[in-house]
Amino acid sequence: MDLSSVLYLALPLSVLALTILYLSHRRPGPAKQPNSAARAGSFYELMKNSHRILDWTAELLAASPTGTVTTFMGVVTSNPSNVEHILKNRFDNYPKGDRSTTILADFLGRGIFNSDGDHWKLQRKTASLEFNTKTIRTFVLHNIRREVAGCLLPILAAAAAAGEVLDLQDLLERLAFDNVCKVAFNEDPGRLAGDTDQGREFANAFEEATNLVVQRYRHPFLFSWKLQRFLGIGSEKLLKEKIATVHRFAMRVVRAKKRAEARGLGDDLLSRFIAEADYSDEFLRDIIISFVLAGRDTTSATLTWFFWLISTRPDVKNRIMDEIRSVRSKKQKPAEATFTLDEVRNMDYLHAALSETLRLYPPVPLQTRECAADDVLPDGTKVSKGRPVMYSSFAMGRTERIWGKDCREFKPERWLENGVFQPKNPFRFPVFHAGPRMCLGKDMAYIQMKAVAATVMERFEVEVVDREKEREPDFTMILRVKGGLPVRVRERPAEGVLAA
């Protein structure tokens, strides 16, 4: 038996032995009932419910009077006061922490989504200035209109003519990847159009690297995956290869962009960072990889859930169509195949429907921080130094204390006041985070999602196959629809809209 085989047997046994040792040497506490919250959050219960971690934690939180539980994996909360405390009031005491940044360091380096302290502040300041300009919003919309009109609509039209069934989730993921690459560094990998060789290699490596990095979070102890990495075996060997491919592509883009600086830079994020200061190639590489990771699947996952949800609610779908027609009717000239920025912004009901989708199916449903110094949360929960602290957006969206008895119902109207969209307190709805780390791409995400949804719905009737079937969440790094979303599409009668 070779060394690799021995390690594959030894590692799980070592983890089990250490876990038993840890549990056997814990200081005895007061006797607890079998159904106590402490037992419910035990290691045994965690293992038993690992395949349904979101539902399990949501059930624990719903049963807790404070909306907070202490489990084997850390403190978990759905209490808005605690969320505000963690993300705003005691922000400095709840960084991402060493465990998370170590797991992602090979892939993201010290990019904005994998850093704390001064290094994070520097990147955040620059990125914040760029994200708040009209130039970048216009650039984002221009690219999504180009991708939708030039690639997505023709694909849907061909499927409609042939009567084919499409996996809408896969289609939207490819669209999102192309678009985020254009926004990040103004290159189109061509996933939706059919792939270039370099684009396919980069996209595939990025996907595999992301999935392999996520596997590190499933190790109870850092040493287990670090040992595999040190020895160059198993998933860590493959991860190293995939990260090298991603970094090689990103460095090529960074260096080419720097060489082109004398001829003028564009409006993409990489160009804006290069124009801001003389950052190193590695710093710029880490930034663009981080932004690609952040924007790659979040919008596509939300749109997939959105199209499934409205397929179950014809009344919501009809109201969105009425709004699209109303926005279009204000144009004096024939409408284009896609929408302008002003038209997108005037779609309040669509904005509400997408927000309601995010409430029920947040793309990143469970966020983790690490306590830097002993603390007490507003609800009285004690948190010791080094303890992981998590807030569950998934559970919060299903909490009666926050949203009322109809919290599990898809109800866009809860976001409207006199027909106008009204945002909610971000600590009740932390889908885009809150406090100093509030998502910079929030407005751009809504612009993209509204533009895609409105354009597709105006041109096509999207019919979900087996729409009565309940869709299960598939949670790795992003909350996707398990098994994809098979749909049939058929073209709507033309109402003055130009063909793509």
Automatic annotation (TrEMBL):
<dbReference type="Pfam" id="PF00067">
    <property type="entry name" value="p450"/>
</dbReference>
<dbReference type="GO" id="GO:0004497">
    <property type="term" value="F:monooxygenase activity"/>
</dbReference>
<keyword id="KW-1133">Transmembrane helix</keyword>
<keyword id="KW-0503">Monooxygenase</keyword>
<dbReference type="GO" id="GO:0016705">
    <property type="term" value="F:oxidoreductase activity, acting on paired donors, with incorporation or reduction of molecular oxygen"/>
</dbReference>
<protein>
    <submittedName>
        <fullName>Cytochrome P450 94A1-like</fullName>
    </submittedName>
</protein>
<keyword id="KW-0408">Iron</keyword>
<dbReference type="InterPro" id="IPR017972">
    <property type="entry name" value="Cyt_P450_CS"/>
</dbReference>
<keyword id="KW-0472">Membrane</keyword>
<dbReference type="GO" id="GO:0020037">
    <property type="term" value="F:heme binding"/>
</dbReference>
<comment type="similarity">
    <text>Belongs to the cytochrome P450 family.</text>
</comment>
<feature type="binding site" description="axial binding residue">
    <location>
        <position position="439"/>
    </location>
    <ligand>
        <name>heme</name>
    </ligand>
</feature>
<feature type="transmembrane region" description="Helical">
    <location>
        <begin position="6"/>
        <end position="23"/>
    </location>
</feature>
<keyword id="KW-0349">Heme</keyword>
<keyword id="KW-0812">Transmembrane</keyword>
<keyword id="KW-0560">Oxidoreductase</keyword>
<dbReference type="InterPro" id="IPR002401">
    <property type="entry name" value="Cyt_P450_E_grp-I"/>
</dbReference>
<dbReference type="InterPro" id="IPR036396">
    <property type="entry name" value="Cyt_P450_sf"/>
</dbReference>
<dbReference type="GO" id="GO:0006629">
    <property type="term" value="P:lipid metabolic process"/>
</dbReference>
<dbReference type="InterPro" id="IPR001128">
    <property type="entry name" value="Cyt_P450"/>
</dbReference>
<dbReference type="GO" id="GO:0005506">
    <property type="term" value="F:iron ion binding"/>
</dbReference>
<keyword id="KW-0479">Metal-binding</keyword>
